[in-house]
Amino acid sequence: MSEGKKTQFVTAGRNKKWTNGVVNPPVQRASTVVFNTVAEKKHATVNRTNKTLFYGRRGTTTHFALQEAMTELEGGAGCALFPCGAAAITNTILSFVSAGDHILMVDTCYEPTRDFCEIMLKKLGVETTYYDPLVGEGIRDLIQPNTKVLFTESPGSITMEVQDVPALAAIAHEHDIIVMLDNTWAAGVNFDPFAHGVDISIQAATKYIVGHSDVMLGTAVASEKYWDQLREQSYLMGQCVSPDDAYLALRGIRTLGVRLQQHGKSSLELAQWLAERPEVDHVRHPGLESCPGHEFFKRDFTGGNGLFSIVLKQSDPKATTALLDTVEHFSMGYSWGGFESLILANEPSSFNALRTLSNPNFEGTLLRIHVGLEDLDDLKADLEKGFAAYNAALA
Ligand SMILES: *Cc1c(COP(=O)(O)O)cnc(C)c1O
Q1: In the chain, pLDDT over 90 holds for what percent of residues?
Q2: Where are the alpha helices (DSSP H) in 55-182?
C-alpha cells in the first residue's frame, strides 16, 4: 500500500457537502429533484454534470460522495458509476468506438469481456484483435490505422499474467489510442493507473471496493482528456446505480486498506505453502517468481490481495471433484473480493475457449483460489483434507 493511502481510505469523499456533518453520507434516494424558482432550475441545469442535484439519473449526494472518493483513490478527473463491473467495461468501450474501428484486447481478459467483443462489438462493426499479455514491443505490429482502444487487464483473468502496462501505454499513445485497464485485481489502489499511462481505469467494485459479497457495482475513472465523453455517453446509455449500493461501496472503502493487507499477507503465505505441495506443479501468484510477469508486479504494484491460481501436476476431474467436495472453507463461487475464501477449477481443455493465442497449455488442473479473512491454519487444514481426498480419488 503506498504512503498516505490508509488515511485516504478514511477521508475520501467525506466532504461536508455530502455528509451533512455526520460521519457517513446519508443514503439520498431521488428520482425527481424539485426547483422552486426558474433561477434554481437554471443553475441545476448548467451545473448538472458537476455534482449538482438535477435529476436522479445524474446522481444524488450519495453518488457524488462515491464518485469523489474513487477519483481521490485512483486519480483522474471523474468517476462514472455502473450497475456492475461488466456494464462498466462494455459501456466504457462503447463510449469510444464507432463502426469501422478496431480494438486491441488482451487475450487473458475476463471471459464476459471477450464475449462482449465477439458478440456485441462484432455486430456493431468493431473488430477485435487479441494480443498476448506478455507481447511487449510486439504490440506495434498489431496496431492498425483504425485502432481506437488498447484494453489491458493485469494480472490476467485466471492465469494471472502481469502486463507491462506502462510500455504498452507509451506505444499506444504514439498512435493516439485510448488505454483502458480493468484494474479490479488491484482494487484501483495497489496499481496507480494514471502514473502508468492508463487513460481510463475500470473496476468491478463488486469485488474489493464493496468487499462483502452483497452488491453489484462498476466504476470507471477517466483522465481529464476522456472524462467528458465517458460521462456523457454512458449517461446516454442510461447507466446509473442505486444510492444504497453507492453507500455500501463507500462503507467498503473505509476498511479496504486493512482488508487488502490481510488478504495479501494470507494469500502469499498460502501460495508459498501450496508451492511445496507434491500435487502442485506451479503457483501463479503475482507476488511469486513463478508467475508470468512477476517482474512487472514488483516494479509497478504496491501490494497484493487474496486472488491467485495454482496448477496441479495432473488433470483428473474425478479427483478434482473429490477435493472441491471435501473442502469446507473454500466454497465455489463466481466472484471474489469478499471476506470469504473461494475456489474454482479449470481443466486444461477449458482454455481452448478462453484464449485465442496465449493458451497456456497446462498439463494439469488450474485451481483459482480467493483467500478470505479466515485463520490461515484453518485454511491450510481444510486444503490438507481436500488433498487427501484428491489423492485417494486419483485414477
Ligand atoms: C468480476 C469481474 C468483472 C465483472 O464485474 P461484475 O460486477 O461481476 O459485472 C470484471 N472484471 C474482472 C477482472 C472481474 O473479476
Answers
A1: 95
A2: 61-74, 85-94, 111-116, 122-123, 165-174
